[in-house]
Amino acid sequence: MRVFLHTSKSEFDIIELEDTTSAEDVLREHVKIEEAELWLEDADQPFERTVTLIEVVEEDAHLHGSRCKKIEATINFHDRQETHSFPPSATIDHVFKYSVGDNGFNLPRDERPKHQLVLCQTTTVPDKSEHIGSLAKDCEICFDLNPKKKFEG
Amino acid sequence: MSPDERTFRAHLKRGAFQAGVSAGRWRLIRIEWPHALIAVSAADRKNGPEELVLRFELTGYPNTLPTSVLWDIDANAVLAEGRRPQGERATLAFRHNWESLYIPCDRKGIVGHGDWATVHPEWMWNETKGIALYLQLVHELLNEDACTGV
Fold this sequence. Notes:
The structure holds two protein chains of two kinds.
Chain A: E1 2-6, E2 13-16, H1 23-31, E3 37-40, E4 62-66, E5 71-77, E6 80-86, H2 92-100, E7 115-119, E8 140-147
Chain B: H1 3-12, H2 15-22, E1 26-32, E2 35-41, E3 51-57, E4 67-72, E5 77-78, E6 86-87, H3 90-93, H4 116-119, H5 131-143, E7 147-149
Antiparallel strand pairs in B: 1-2, 2-3, 3-4, 4-5, 6-7
């Protein structure tokens, strides 16, 4: 069964799960990071290492291997700042919705889609499908919540 | 097979492109090198299509930027003006009076827009990210709330 495997690399891989492949197998054969754990996308807790993956995930599921149990995210918006912990398998889409939502900066609903997350001190706008754990350094990450711009000129 | 076609086909097998296919964000229709037809899904809008087709010209990929136009498969021609997505950013990006998509990662779109490298650095072409970057931007434009259909 095909699944997508995200790690601390910027690109994610496609791997095949056999009927008996466990989380431990994926960590040992593909993740290869000491003390790493395996997570399902946007899940709050990692898999038990002995779990047989095809019993708990679906075809084309997104998994994440990381030694970070949480990613501490700092998000800047104008002169305000919020910090929040996310699992490493949280998608950028999840972090964005938190940032603009009621528990974040609580932007007016019609303003929310007009913004995007940019990695601090870079020009990188991660795709909404990327995992926060693939972008973090030392289990920390920083975003600026910026308005999107039109293409004109 | 030429090196550019080989690289493009390899990029289609990578996680970023395949995850987009799996999520229903885009799909490959066919490759007729140096062209490729890729459909990108669009948000549900009154009178709006479920997807729009891009006809890419990919000579020199990925060292040379791709360029694409909105394509009418039935007519085998560039999509007519009245069938193009409208909206705050979409109207400009998919304008009819330009010979390509009007976006920074397009070979023809970027011509004459030296300031885009400063204003839109995140959407400048990136050989490493490849075709997935281009498709991510088009998918975003077609699915943001401000895109009102055709």
